[in-house]
Amino acid sequence: MQVSATDAKNRFGDYLGQAEHEPVQVMKNDRVAVVMVSAARYAELEAIERTKTLGQRKREFNETYAEWIAAQNELVERVGVFGEDYRPW
Known about the structure:
By secondary structure, the protein is of the alpha+beta class. It has 5 helices and 3 strands.
């Protein structure tokens, strides 16, 4: 279910009850800003996150932000690291 942010504000109680049964996506500026879910579903999602290993979380991060990581690596290769030549000792 998708609702506008204004509608969610005006009918919060109704959508709060609806979120007990299904996720309610709140749209703002033509994008999903938040999703309301039941407390039970939120607890399930939290439990799933806690069971992931550090390696799994690292892989997910690298997959999600692969383009950003590549851009940062390219920037460091091209420009270097600020203050790299300065050593306090």
